[in-house]
Give the backbone structure.
Amino acid sequence: MARDFDIDAIRAEFPILSREVNGKPLIYLDNAASAQKPNAVIDGMADQMRTAYANVHRGLHTLANETTETFEAGRETVRDFINAPSANQVIFTKGGTEAINLVASGIAAEIQPGDEIVLSVMEHHSNIVPWHFLRERHGAVLRWVEVDANGALDMAALEAAVGPKTRLVAATHMSNVLGTVTDAARITEIAHAAGAEVLFDGCQAGVHLDVDVQALDCDYYVLTGHKIYGPTGIGALYGKAEALARLRPYQGGGEMIEVVERDRVTYNEAPHKFEAGTPPIIEAVGFGAAINWLSQFDMGEVQAHEHALYERALEGVRGVNGLTVHGTAPGKGAVLSFSIEGTHPHDLAQLLDRYGVAVRAGHHCAQPLMQHLGVSATARASFGIYNTAAEVDAFIEALHKARGMLI
Ligand SMILES: Cc1ncc(COP(=O)(O)O)c(C=O)c1O
């Protein structure tokens, strides 16, 4: 049975939400950049260090075994969260960026000059630059798919871009700027029909959508911990078993080997093959705690709450003169990017901070999208499980004041 969606009780579990910023109650609307942490995560990590800390795997003593158990329980929690067939298909990384670099580096040796990687223009730099490496170093060609005026992915253009030379389609499952949710199952069909693999960047989707990697049939899926109310320094890569068996290891070191001799080395199997060195143990424990915390709730109820906040904010910003909203695709997530004519987003964000409102301003690590939109930056309010309607109203009021000061 899902836990009751009681917003006061939820907020009470996030200690940071009771602090003030510039003499005003904190209104944290920067969740798409990184979310705050509940006590379950903070205490879970601290308790692990207080009571059962040691290095994981190969331990022959109690603390090593206990730490390994909790660390591997974190992996099982991630597996269950995305419905992966096996925990061996969940690789811990230091975040979403490392997970994508792991795949790009792993397939690099297979790339022939002229092989194509298909990307959308709304990708985060994490899902662009690793593919630029393949372009620069291995002669891969990047093919870009546009978004329409609402910010929805142009599926006809995607179909046209994918062809016999496509090695991989790398697409966001939810844009960090526009909030657009892509039709991931259809993207997979298009990629697979051409014999290409597909990778989804689920750094934003992981916290807002129900993700089922088997239903999506994707080859790779990327998650990050710090946006799912978990710690920084941890993320996960899901891969199909055959893909992980084929991928070259990303880094060399302890844990990822089977046998090391003077003139030869053989590798362990996934996930260990991709987890060289001491992994982020405490962070994995925190990642598991965050997912367990979030999983108490009915995801539909969480989505409805966040969507209602987004709709309220959208309604509110419509009353602000000269304001343009970027991204209005149907079914989008709770991310509101906007520009106000005659103001710079950085100035807006700084003035909002005076009222205790934290929003992000900049290119959001999505410069190709900024070029597509014809702006250098936007301001962005992004909503999470603990935000309230009253906070949205205070944000809109502060926005009016900030605009008044700048124009
Ligand atoms: C869509 C998207 N992809 C990738 C990333 C990078 O994830 P990480 O911070 O875990 O490296 C982010 C973070 O901002 C993101 O929003």
Remarks:
- Residues 33, 95-97, 124, 126-127, 172, 176, 201, 203-204, 224, 235, 365 surround pyridoxal-5'-phosphate (CB under 6 Å).
